[in-house]
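Reviewer comment 2.1 asked that we show a complete input and output for one of the modelled complexes. We chose the pyridoxal-5'-phosphate case, as it is the one discussed in the main text.
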Amino acid sequence: MTKAEEIIEREQRFLLPTYHRYPLVVERGKGVFLFDLAGKRYLDFVAGLGVNALGHAHPRVVKVIREQAARAIHLSNLYYNEYQGRLAEKLCQLSSLDRAFFANSGTEAIEGSIKLARLAGHRIGGEAKSQLIALEGSYHGRTFGSMSLTGQDKYRQGFEPLLENVKFVPRNDRSALAAAVSDETCAIVLEPIFGEGGIRECSPEFLAECRALADRHRAALIFDEIQCGLGRTGTIFAFQTFGVVPDIVAIAKPIAAGLPLAAFLARQDFASAIHVGQHGSTFGGGPLACRVALEYLVIVEEENLLENVRRVGSYLEEQLSLLTTRYSVARQARGRGLIQGLELEIPARPIVEQAVAEGVLFNSTQDTVLRFLPPFLIQEKQVDKAIRVLKKLFGRSQTSHVRVSMGSSVSDGQKADARGGTAKAHPALGEKEGRA
Ligand SMILES: Cc1ncc(COP(=O)(O)O)c(C=O)c1O
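Response of the prediction step:
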């Protein structure tokens, strides 16, 4: 048995079977690359599901972790530490919000956000003001509150009863939203760009309507920027890209460069609703995680990474769009900056599996969407490499896709239209680059 097989077998024997992993044992990473046990290199377009914005083993992050670990890793929230307040101050300055609370995971940041919205709602309208509005197709995490706000049955089934008083509306449906929000609403919760939900954006008009309705009904507008925030859209907060400021924003993934840290930031009107003892976290806001997070923000600024996200993100967007004009299996490119998706006509997971063998790591979501969340350090030539691999794999799949659809009288273009997608004239299958 090889070492990799031994590692895989041990996990399969002793862990709860909750993950569908790829059969790849990663030993280490450097920059935008990961390496397996045999030393084979993989170009990383997953970045730990959006966490490793600074790539792997960034020298400044490694240095700060070493220094701080030798001083104090954890102290508890019984005492002050130098870095928690400094990080809160920096995040408030960057967001124009007023106060922060630190937790350890995205789902906890959502839980804290809705607890705060409930307190603020009750202060205005008593317990009756408890309703939460969320979006169909959204994803907010795995704990009960977040799961109750997640608009996908597959994550909720089996765990009922969930949180009461949650109403779902379709993304970008302004009239459904207006009909759902009332004086009993305490919060509207949404991801400006759905991540797990397949890289789908809320329109600026829809976000503006959310803002107006939240104001009219004195409800909190909560943005879940756990996946799309902290630089991924090319601005430090995604809401700055869309021009609508929320009352509360939840952030996590890249903030402490891979150490578990999350936060929610709130406007004073809402922050003032909470008092000593009403919320807390043993690990949240420890000196190591907070000091690394401060370093993360400095690195993003000093290395001009937002500029890189915008430049290379546009290039990636262009290249993915080109794929949709050249390969019938590539249906629609979506997203911006370094949060992008490619909707396929075929299941995405086999493409991801074949790409692993080609030395490039992608991720799939919603069965047919390839998701791209590379580190902010990614360069055009690495996008070219990823696109070359996709062309090779699409060429291969397209050939078998043609064979499968041969007996059918419905064309690929008609199939896309029937599902209400963007009507797109596919070039003849087997067209020159289709076989590349
Ligand atoms: C938009 C969004 N919200 C919440 C979460 C939950 O975060 P965590 O897995 O850290 O609890 C995720 C995780 O992928 C996410 O993408």
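The chain has two domains: 3-57+305-405+415-426, 72-302. We note this here for comparison with the apo prediction described in Section 3.2.
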